[in-house]
Amino acid sequence: MRILLVSDLHYALRQFDWVVQRAPDYDLVVLAGDCLNIASAVPLHAQSVVVLHYLQLLRSTTRVAVASGNHDLTGPDAHGEQAALWLDEARAAGVPCDGDSLLIGDLRISICPWWDGPVGRAAVEAQLAADAARRPARWLWVYHWPPLGSPTCWTGKRHYGDTELGGWIARFAPDLVLTGHVHEPPFRPDGAWADRIGHSWVFNAGHQIGPVPAHIDIDLAGGTVRWRSMLGDETLQLADAAAPERSVF
Asked: How far is the C-alpha of 155 from the C-alpha of 185, rounded, in Å?
């Protein structure tokens, strides 16, 4: 099974075009948050219409999983916490997204939303606990923000990570956690696109400009993971005990 991980496309339509073009090569395409861009001159509601079209194109080609990020929040939910309300339309169109759980062969995929308050946090924890009880051979999380303290959240000046995720990783020990949010880590000394935390691998492709997004290619059958960016290619083995030393710096 091959998985393509991208995140933080931020309404860069040429990058969405590239993902659609490459999607047939993969069994699953994961968009780990921030499809939209709150800094764009295009209103969020208009951006969401365009991105929903891209998601439908992807779904027509392969399996897709989409998690929300902080840029994707478009209004308050029933509890008054900010949420990516537009993803309800994606779900209605058959695109798995926030709060959904997929089973593909022996792989469970938990798609976690960006949570904005205690109700949302509790919902994510309950989602992970429920999926832990029905865990198959492999378990993958899609979660926008890397865990605090990991080199996958190193900006070059500080660790900018999620304070809750590390505890959930320690408690539930997923096999793979696919993240984004922090753009810089793969492009900074002492940062990384991959981190091994106990049993779990954490990946963050980072963000780059141009028509091709930084991306990660995961081959579960072959046990290899490759990060591709403007800096070139880096590869690791899922059987490795830790991420390899980086040679680009």
From this structure: 6
**CA-CA distance, 195 to 202, in Å (whole number)?**
5
CB-CB contact of 108 with 163 (8 Å): no
10 Å CB burial of residue 55 (0-12, 13-18, 19+) is buried
Three-state SS for the chain is: CEEEEECCCCCCHHHHHHHHHHHHHCCEEEEECCCCCCCCCCCHHHHHHHHHHHHHHHHCCCEEEEECCHHHCCEECCCCCEECCCHHHHHHCCCCCCCCEEEECCEEEEECCCCCCHHHHHHHHHHHHHHHCCCCCEEEEECCCCECCCHHHECCCCECCECCHHHHHHHHCCCEEEECCCCCHHHCCCCCCEEEECCEEEEECCCCCCCCCCEEEEECCCCEEEEEECCEEEEEECCCCCCCCCCCC
Residues in contact with 104: Cβ distance below 8 Å, sequence separation at least 6, in sequence order: 1, 27, 28, 63
pTM equals 0.98
Output the tens digit of pLDDT for each of the chain's 249 residues. Answer: 999 999 999 999 999 999 999 999 999 999 999 999 999 999 999 999 999 999 999 999 999 999 999 999 999 999 999 999 999 999 999 999 999 999 999 999 999 999 999 999 999 999 999 999 999 999 999 999 999 999 999 999 999 999 999 999 999 999 999 999 999 999 999 999 999 999 999 999 999 999 999 999 999 999 999 999 999 999 999 999 999 888 777
